[in-house]
Amino acid sequence: MSAKAGELTLEMLRKPKNRKVAAILALAGVAPLPFFGVSLHLVGLHKFYLGQKWWGLLYILFATTPIAAIAGVIEAVWYLIQDSDEFDQNFNDELAEPGMISKSAPVVAEKVVAIADAMRHLDQLRQDGLITEYEFEQKRRQLLDRIH
Questions:
Q1: Long-range contacts, stretch 56-63, CB < 8 angstroms, 24+ apart
Q2: Which whole-number Å values give the CA distances from 92 to 47, 88, 133, 139, 141, in the listed order?
Q3: How far apart are CA 91 and CA 78, in angstroms?
Q4: How far apart are CA 18 and CA 129, in angstroms?
Q5: At what angle are helices 66-81 and 53-61 packed, to 10 degrees?
Q6: Between 59 and which of 31, 43, 84, 125 could a Cys-Cys bridge form, CB atoms 3.0 to 4.6 Å apart?
Q7: DSSP labels for 33-72?
Q8: Rounded to the nearest 5°, which phi and psi values hold at 82?
Q9: H or E element that contains 112
């Protein structure tokens, strides 16, 4: 492979994947296509498109069995019923550069800030003697459990 082809392949793998394209590729493997008198099975293309080469190879191994076609239909439907955010989380998360904040990060950050404020308030109540150490610890654990 030439250096130019290698660069193009890497550039293609870095681009965000589209769930509709993945679904079309998954369905392309359902029926064999006639190609110069030979039945050509296109199973597994969606896995290669999504960067899952080992799964793609497994699909090729099962190309002549109904397993690959059935799995392709199931996955096509699965890709289409996911919303864009869920698909991106499953297949485009590795595209995010270190330090980038995902779409769900502001929600999580707001939640953590709210919990931190509640813990400060709880600590103030403990210092003022309005709650016991035991009550403080119970409430602190409940608040921390909300983060997960």
A1: 59/29, 63/29
A2: 13, 4, 46, 37, 34
A3: 13
A4: 57
A5: 140
A6: 43
A7: EEETTEEE--TTHHHHHTT-HHHHHHHHHTTTSHHHHHHH
A8: -75, 145
A9: helix 105-127
Provide the residue count of the chain.
Answer: 148
Mean pLDDT across 68-92: 85
Q: Which of 34, 85, 29, 86 is nearest to 55 (CA)?
A: 29
Q: Which two tokens stand for residue 39?
A: 């039945």
Distances in whole angstroms, Cα of residue 95 to Cα of each of 34, 41, 116, 147: 36, 30, 31, 25
In the block, residue with structure tokens 């610890």: 137
Specify the 3-state DSSP secondary structure of 100. coil
Give 99's pLDDT tier (boundaries 50, 70, 90): very low
Contact 29, 59 (CB under 8 A): yes
Name which of 17, 20, 78 is nearest 52 in CA terms.
Answer: 17
Task: Answer with the residue of higher pLDDT: 34 or 90.
Answer: 90
In degrees, to the nearest 5, what angle opens at C-alpha 96 toward C-alphas 90 and 102? 75
Residue 42 CA, distance from chain mean position: 24
Residue with tokens 């016991």: 132
